[in-house]
Amino acid sequence: MSWAAHDLEPYLFRAKLGARISLVWCLIGSYSPDLLTKWAVYGFGFSHHDAILSDPVQFHRGWPGAGFTHTPFWGFAVTGVILLLTKNRTWAFSYLLGAIAHVLSDSLDSVGVMMLFPFSTWHMHFGLWEYVGEAGRAKDAVAYYTSLGGVWDAFWALWLLRYWRMFTITYFRDELYPSDPFWSWMHRFTGETVMLTVYRTSAFFGYASIIGWYIWVLAINDFHPHLDWSFGAPHWAPRQGPR
Amino acid sequence: MNDAEEAPDRRLHPVVYWLIVLAIAVALGVSAPAFFLLGFWEMAPLVLFATWLAPKLTRGHL
Question: Cys-Cys with A29: which of A99, A108, A137, B50 at CB 3.0–4.6 Å?
Fold first, then answer.
């Protein structure tokens, strides 16, 4: 699975595609596959791990299970519903782009995603890093940020730095607000401070979490606190996913 | 001459301000990852507070 990449990718799409992207709907699309499933994969607790499911990997990415949420099929289905309800093509396309980006990002780990669902349950997986979600959140953080997963997050974070001006109030007022009716709708209920918070928080969280997790994993945590950027790392974790 | 005009503007540059906020977020996250490094909702109160405070502590907008 990917971590902060899901928070940052939508901002890059907005930076590159401009008014063709509704940032909020792209973020919803990017979050949606994990929205109702990830808490169950990790179980209760942080440093200790109380499992909720007997097979969290199957639940998260497989079928039977909730793995259909990580498929293009699901992305297109929800996009159709959004289009039907809102009649807004930009919102629907933005949701789809976010959801597909999530699916493609998650295909990079060892479990991958059911790319051809519902016609096949075959998992497209590139195995750049090991899927370790079943071990709980703390160990998954160690696994992800010591492996190429963390590099994937850093790649998006560094790329997005080039477009830092998109986080200014000027950009929000002059570019974002006029191009997406979501913001004028939101303005009926709240002021600019809250709207800016909604706009910026995912990116801010993405940067804070990448830096924070790297420090925690390498300097605070004492469970395998070493970088391993080899293909399929970390190798201390049991192999998950198709072989 | 007006004293107010001569007083140096001690408010922070907006970029410096947001880097300080980021450093605070990272420090909170590293000290308590279970509370601050988990997602959007955990980070939103800090970003809301920082956004509200920014015009009072910084020169110009960011």
Answer: A99
Q: Which residues on adjacent β-strands are paired with residue A56?
A: none
Identify the band that residue A233 occupies on the pLDDT scale cut at 50, 70 and 90: very high
Distance CA A18, CA A176 (A): 9
Q: Which residues of A touch B51 (CB under 8 A)?
A: 193, 196-197, 200
State both tokens at A214: 């790297």
Count of CB contacts below 8 A, A vs B? 72
Check pLDDT > 70 for residue B2.
Answer: no
Residue A174 DSSP label? I
N residues, chain B: 62
Please compute, for residue A128, the number of CA atoms within 13 A of its CA located in the half-sphere on the CB side: 18
Mutation site for B-interface testing, chosen from A37, A197, A207 by largest number of B Cβ within 10 Å: A197
State the ipTM, two decimals.
0.92
CB proximity list for A37: less than 8 A, separation 6 or greater: A59, A60, A66, A69
